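hiii, so i know i said id send this last week but things got crazy w the move. better late than never?? heres the sequnce for the chain we talked about at the cafe, plus the structure i predicted for it. fair warning i was half asleep when i ran it
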Amino acid sequence: MFSVSDVSSLEDKQPAFRIFKPWWDTFMDYLTIIMLLLAIFGCSIQLYMDETFCLPHFKKADETKGTKPSEINSTLKNTPGTSDGRVTKLFNWQYFFVNQICYGQIPWFTRFFSYLILFHTVVLIICSNFCFTYPKTSSKMQQFLNILQKCFQSPWTSKALSTAVGVDASEVEEALERQGTSGNDAMSSLNTDASTLKIPTRIHSSTPGSGSSLDKNDAEQAKALFEKVRKFRLHVEEKDTIYKFYAGQTLFKTIHCLVIIGYFPAYIYVVDFFNICEPNAISLVFYTTFMCTYTTARFIGKMALLYLGLVVIYWLLCIHTIFWVFRKTLKQYSFEKRGENQFTDIPDVTNDFAFMLHLIDQYDTLYCKRLAVFLSEVSEKKLKLLSLNNDWTVEKVKMHLTKTKKDQFELYLFMLQGIPESVYDVTELQILRLELCSNVKISNKITQLDQLEEIWLSHCVTEVTPSALMWLRQQLKKVGVKYVSRDEIPEWIYKLIQLKELYLTGKLAIEKKAVELESLKGLRSLKVLYLKSSLSKLPSTIIDVAFHLLKLCIHNDKTKLLSLSILKKMVNLTQIELHNCELDKIPTAIYTLSKLQVLDLKGNNLTKIEEIANLQYLEKLSCLKFWFNMIKTIPPTINRIKKLEYLYFSNNQIEVLPKVLFSIEKLHYFDAHNNNISIIPTDIGNLKNLYYLDLGYNKIETLPDQLFKCNKLMTLKLSNNLISNLSSKISKLSQLTLLELQGNNLDKLPVEIGQCTLLRHSGFVIEQYIYESLPSEIREKMGGT
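okay and structure toks below
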C-alpha cells in the first residue's frame, strides 16, 4: 500500500510547467476538466442505470405487418396505455429476455456516448500536455525552469541584480512590488518542487551598504548562472522543436474538435427515450414489436448538447491559438522592442528559447525581465568586475609588482575580467601589462597613478572613460598592442599627444590586401614606431608622423615589402629596422636618410651588397646589421663608411674577410659568427678600438698574432672552430672579460692567460678538462677550482 506522504511527494515532483501555459491554454485546461468530469459522471450513470424496459405493442403480430416503426411510435405516444387494456400473459423471464435483446438494438451513439466523450476528452488532455512529456521538449523546459528559479532566488540574486544593473536594491524591490499580485501568483506557481523550484514570492533587497558588495560565494554563484544561461541559450537556439510540437498539437486539437463538431449533431437526434424493438422471437413471446424505454436517454441528450457546446468553445480557443502561433513571429524575441529593462545590449534570441519567452510572456512579463539581466553583457561585466575587486586587494596587487632592469615597477595581469580597482591605489606603478584580459575599462581612478608611463596590451579590448583619456594623453610615453584583428587596436591610442613609442604586433593585412591604420596625426610626439606584421607596403598614415619619427621598425614575417618610397619623407629618421621583408637589395630610399645612424636588414634575401658604397653619404651612419642573410662576400667599398662602429654579419655565407674591412678605424664591434670564414687577416691588428669580436662557428684554424694587438678587446668569441693552439700573447688582452673557446681542437691553455686580470671563470667558456689543465694558482686567481 502507498502512504499519503508517498503520493504527495510524487505530486510535488511534477514540473511547474504552468508558466508555459498562456491564458487560452489555461482556459482549455479548465474546459477539459469539465469535460472529464462530465464523461466520468456519464459513465457512472450508464454503469448503474444503463438498461431498457420493454412492453408488447398494443397490436398483435398479424396486425402490425406493414406498419412502419415511426408510425407505431407516433400512435403509442398519442395513446395513453393500451387501447383495450388486455393482459399480455407474458412471464417475467420473457420480459427479461426481450429487454436484453432490445438493449442491443438501441443506437450505438446512445449506448456508448459517455465512453465516447471520455475518449475524446482524454485525447485532448494528452495532446494539450504532449510538449511537457515528450523528452526532447520537456527536458529543455525543465532546464529553463531551473534557470528561472535561480534568477529569482534569494539572497544573492537580489545583490547581483542591484549591483549589475547599477541601481539601488530598494528600486529593485519597488519594481517587483509594482508587478502586483500577478507577479506573486506567477512565482508561487514555481513552488511545486520543494527541492529544486523554490522561488520566493519576492526578491529580498540587500541591506543598505551591502548593495555595492558581494561576498565571494555569492559572486561565484552569480557568475556560474551567467555561464549556465549562456550555454542553455546556445543549446536551445539550435532548433525549434518546442515551437513545432506546440504548433502541431494545436493543429491536431483543432482538427479533433472539428471532427467532434461535425458528427455529433448528426447523432444527437437519434437519442430517444422511446424506442421500437422487433426482437424476432415470436415463437417465444408471441409478439413481433415491443415498445422500449431507455432509462438514461433524457440525461444523455442534455449531456450531449452540453458537451458539444464545450467543444465549440474549445475549438474557438484553438483557432485563436493557431492565429497567435502562425501570425506572429514567435521564433524571435526582442527585449529591446518590448522595453522590458534598462539594458540595451541584450541580444535578440531565436527558435525554442524565443518561443519559451513568448509563452511565459503571456503568463507574466516579470520572468522575462529578471531573465534579461542574465543575458546582458553589461550586467555580467559589472558583476565580474565586482568579484574581481573583492579578490584583488591592494596587498595582492603589490605582491605581483616586479622591478625591471631599469628599476621600474611593473605589474603584469593575465586573463582577468577587467582591471581591479585596487590597482589604482598602487601609486608607485610605472608599467602596466595586460594579457588576455577581457572587459577592460580604464576608469577615472587611473589619474592616481602619477608614475605610470607605459601600458602594454596583449589581446585585450579596452575602453577608456573621457576623463581618463584626457589624463592619459599627457601621461603615457610608451604603448604596446599585440592583437589578432585590427579591432583589438584601441582607438584611444591615436589621441595620446605625449606618446613617444608605439609598438603594434599583429596582422595588418587581409588576404594579401593591406589594411590601413587609423590616422596618426594625434601622435604629435611619436619618436619610435614598431610594426610587427605582414605588410606588402607601409601604411600611408605613417606620413602623419614621418617628420618627427626617429626610429622605424618593420618586422614583416617573411612577407615581401614592395614599396619603401615613403621612407624618403622621414628626414629625421636615425634608426631603421627592416626584418624579414624579403629584400634582395638595400632599398634606395634609405640613401636619402641623411641622419640615419643604424641600419638593420636582418633576415632578408641579400646575397650581394655592392651598393653599400652608396651608404658613404650617410655621414652619421655608425651601425650596419646584415645578419641572417645569404651574403657571400663583403664588398671592399665598405671602408668608405668612415664612421662605422658596429658591424653585424653573423649567419651568412661569408668565406673571406676583406683587408679593407680592418681599415675602418672606428670599428669597435664586429660580429661574424656562423659563416664559412677560415682565415683571420693579419690586418685585424689595425682595429685599435675593437672591444667586441665574435667569429664563432666558422672554420678558423689559427689565430694571427696581430689579433692580440687589439688590446681593448673585452669580448672574444671563437667557439666551434678548428683552433688547435692558443698563443701565449693572449696575455696582452688585459681588458678581456669574456672568452669563448669551446668546441675547438685545443688540448691545453697557455699559462699566460692568467695575466688577463679581468677574466674570471664565469666569463671563460671552455671544456672543463682543458680548464683544469691550468695551474691551480691561475684557476684560483680566476675564481675557479
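btw The domain at 15-129+246-327 is CATH 1.20.1440 (de novo design (two linked rop proteins)). thought thatd interest u
miss u guys!!
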